[in-house]
From TrEMBL:
Keywords: Isomerase, Pyruvate. Transmembrane segments: none annotated. GO terms for molecular function: hydroxypyruvate isomerase activity. PANTHER family: HYDROXYPYRUVATE ISOMERASE-RELATED, ISOMERASE. InterPro entries: HPT_OtnI_isomerases, HyI-like, Sugar_Epim/Isomerase, Xyl_isomerase-like_sf, Xyl_isomerase-like_TIM-brl. The keyword Isomerase applies. Gene3D superfamilies: Divalent-metal-dependent TIM barrel enzymes (3.20.20.150). The active site is at E143 (proton donor/acceptor), E245 (proton donor/acceptor). The lineage of its organism: Bacteria, Pseudomonadati, Pseudomonadota, Betaproteobacteria, Rhodocyclales. Belongs to the hyi family. It comes from Oryzomicrobium terrae. This is Hydroxypyruvate isomerase. The keyword Nucleotide-binding does not apply.
Amino acid sequence: MLKFAANLTFLFADRPFLDRFAAAAEAGFAGVEYLFPYDFPAADIRARLTAHDLTQALFNLPAGDWAAGERGLAALPGREADFRAGLDQARRYAETLGCTRLHAMAGIPPIGADPELVRATYLANIRHAARTLAADGITLMIEPINSRIDMPGYWLDSPRAAFALLDAIGEANVRVQYDLYHAQIMEGDLARTLEYGLAGPVPRIGHLQVADNPGRGEPGSGEIAYPFLFAILERLGYDGWIGCEYKPANLAAGTEAGLGWFAPYRRRAG
């Protein structure tokens, strides 16, 4: 049985953040994820997880000055101290929240930055983070995010590049966070990529996320054949989390109105 985590940055956004946990549980989700928890005390979030029997599936390391356009620090030369400070903050939150998956965003390097220096900076930061988090039993995620629509200039923008980086990084607790929406935009070939990334005793994919394309709406609102892909995941025995990082197509009607696709998978009372 596939298990889904509501991304509370995107879903149930008509409520205050801490009230979204109850909404996710009521809708039948067993887990939650979101971009960042750092505006709220970890103990307050832990209380919501416990009250609603939810698992914290994933969140991101601090990504720099989001309002100013920063989208991660791992590939930014000269920001190594900020990256490490963010890593320490994320570790503290992960311990309180019981979270065993953290995502380190690569970021958007400055125009004109030396490509070799950017790559070396990224590899050094990710290796350091992976070795630090291994002591906590945490797996570090690297996610290719499309640079065509959502994040122009994002350094890690294709699944092919992300899989290749796993070998270059060389740390056992690093996996690819495979978002099918971003992957469809950049490369497509989703079914074969899932089979490749989940093959073998040590899968290359450690976390999945879903949204449809175009528009980043819920599964079934666009061109991606999600029932077909979910059947592949079940056949492959995927037992990790699938994060629902999409924008409800009908914002006025709310998240609940677009959850018809989720009916076969929802957690039911009892």
